[in-house]
Amino acid sequence: MKPFQYAIIGGTGVYNSGVSSFQKTVETEYGEVEVDIAEVKKNSIVFLARHGKEHGTLPHRINYRANLKALQKLGVQHIFATAAVGSLNPNYPTGSLVVISDFLDMTKQRPLTFFEGGLEGAKHVKMDDPYCANLRKHLLETAKRHDVQFKGNAIYICTEGPRFESEAEIKMMREWGADVVGMTSVPEVVLAKELGLCYASVGFVVNMATGMERGPIQLESIGEMLAQNKEKVNLMFLDIFKKTLDQQNCGCLDSIVNL
Ligand code: HPA
């Protein structure tokens, strides 16, 4: 395997990186994970389909710990993710792309941490920059060249799913400051940080959240919308991965607090 390992975690609609690759099964203490690995110039790029290749794994059933552990085992230090989201912000209409900059956690019943205490002691993880500041900077700098128009930064509220939100919930979430809603970024971003990995995520707005428009939420044209953007965004990720990324310009390696 080549010296720099980068990864893409593809959300709904993004099931490959668009470059030729071979499959690998990675064993972890949390379970097996299937990935595709592409060798691009001097780097290896690992692609992981978050919901599985057939999109069969619902958000609350995803084995997030196995996924992140597998990437770490492969030597990955930098991860870009994509996430289909609903919008609570009228400035981010359906079809928008956003850079996720922070999160609110409303998940209820998924394993949220690698830390179990006991012999390893009491560990906590800082969340002042959950999404790597350095990777986010690269996204914003590289977007124009790839005709990717980010509408802005977005605070992501993560729900347990698989149900969508009620109108009253969305009203409350807007008051809390959420811009977009989805079902997967927590615990993915938290687990990456616990492992000292740099992680950033691009949100694809596929619908306005419940109650944001008259009538029921519209999700019919998701496929088309994702198809339009996924290629451009993947190419942008691959372009950023051509650089030698380090961990000197962010706090991701230094986020664990041992008490
Ligand atoms: N709510 C939660 N998750 C989502 C939505 C939504 O409206 N759209 C895409 N993922």
Give structural notes.
With 259 residues, the chain is an alpha/beta fold. The protein has a single domain (6-258), classed as Nucleoside phosphorylase domain (Rossmann fold, 3-Layer(aba) Sandwich). It has 5 helices and 11 strands. Strands 5-9-8-6-10 form a 5-stranded mixed β-barrel, surrounded by 4 helices. It has a two-stranded antiparallel ribbon with strand order 7-11. A hairpin with a 2-residue loop joins strand 2 (22-28) and strand 3. Helix 2 crosses helix 5 (222-241). Hypoxanthine is lined by residues 84-86, 159, 164-165, 181-183, 206-207, 209, 217. Hypoxanthine (HPA) binds at residues 84-86, 159, 164-165, 181-183, 206-207, 209, 217.
Query: Which regions have little confidence, pLDDT < 50, spanning 5+ residues?
Result: none
| Form type | globular
CATH architecture: 3-Layer(aba) Sandwich
Radius of gyration, Cα only, in angstroms? Answer: 17 Å
Order of helices and strands: EEEEHEEEHEHEHEHE
Number of domains: 1
